[in-house]
Amino acid sequence: MTSRRQFIRNTAIAGAGMSIVPHWVSATQKPQDKIEELKVGLIGVGLRGTNHLQNLILRNDVRVTALCDIDADRIALCRNLIKEAGKNAPLIFEGGPYDYLNLLDSKEVDAVIIATPWLWHTRMTVDAMKAGKYAGVEVSAANTLEECWDLVNTHEATGTHMMILENVNYRRDILAVLNMVKQEVFGELVHFRCGYQHDLRHVKFNNGKQPYGGGVEFGEKAISEARWRTLHSVKRNADVYPTHGLGPVAVMADINRGNRFLSLTSHASKSIGLHNYIVKNGGEDHPNADVEFKQGDVITTTIDTARGETIIITHDCNLPRPYSLGFRVQGANG
Predict the structure, then answer these.
(1) What confidence tens digit (pLDDT) does each residue in 176-220 have?
(2) Would you tell me how many other CB atoms lie within 10 Å of the CB of residue 27?
(3) What is the distance of C-alpha 220 from the center of its chain?
(4) How many CB atoms neighbour CB 58 within 10 A?
């Protein structure tokens, strides 16, 4: 049994080309060689899951063999995309929230991509690893410290791998700065800044007909992300989405590769942004104008590392602002 440190080191992100299941296609494989297809099932085919599907069907080394969702319209849309691409029809699992377990039992699935609402991510990933299916899970992969340990412990118990699908790690500018860090351009590292600074008000509210904007509904009267994501702003005063910033910084800082997080402090501002958006676009008499949102509009977290660096993370998604992940890498040389 490998230690947690060995596991994290051995599965470290090596670069943008790393595959979720690297042994299926050899790096030395010649173009004329027969390519063994990886059979992938998609659990969750909303907007994000459909984006994954569109990328997968462009590949000749992957076959989408199964779709799972509780929304029949999304299943129908994705089946049509697969048909239009000239691919074989997938198995369909739409028999309720737990039908994904039947997908995981299928011998027609080698690996899964999980793109469901956040609270399902850990349980589905754990179930996938227990079923022997490699799992790629959308962020955030976990919502509590206990869920983080569930992912690590399940890997250690099963030997099955999972990958957190943090796309920002693979942006060209991020990879360029990571290379500069590895080349010691900045010298000894001292401080990092990062975050998720993105006006998401049109994502958290819609009119129940279009996925983004057009109204101030959320929950059961909304569709797409506003149906579930906004509830986190109602119930949780926290940075609920840190990995767009912290994922790249953790790699640069060698977290769990010789360095580690020691402690954090987190502070939240008052909450006015979502209420103001509702009043402006739906009126003071709209029922949602009475909703109390626990999440502060700007949440600032400071992390200390074992090597003495500090990391400041900013979550700023409820106010009007330009998009920025606010990266800074600072060392002895600049």
Answers:
(1) 999 999 999 999 999 999 999 999 999 999 999 999 999 999 999
(2) 7
(3) 23
(4) 9
* Beta strands across the sheet bearing 298-305: 261-268, 298-305, 310-316, 189-197, 328-331
**188/301 same-domain check:** yes
User: Is the preceding omega at residue 140 within 30 degrees of 0, hence cis?
Assistant: yes
Find the CATH number of the domain harbouring 182: 3.30.360.10
Query: Is the domain of 80 the same as that of 100?
Result: yes
Q: Which residue among 165, 193, 215 closes a domain?
A: 165
Domain span including residue 110: 4-165
Adjacent-strand bridge partners of 310:
191, 304
Q: 154 with 11, same domain?
A: yes
Task: Indicate the pTM of the whole model.
Answer: 0.89
Rounded to an integer, what distance in angstroms lies between the CA atom of residue 172 and that of residue 31?
Answer: 27
State how far the alpha carbon of 38 is from the alpha carbons of 17, 25, 59, 79, 223, in Å.
Answer: 16, 9, 10, 19, 32
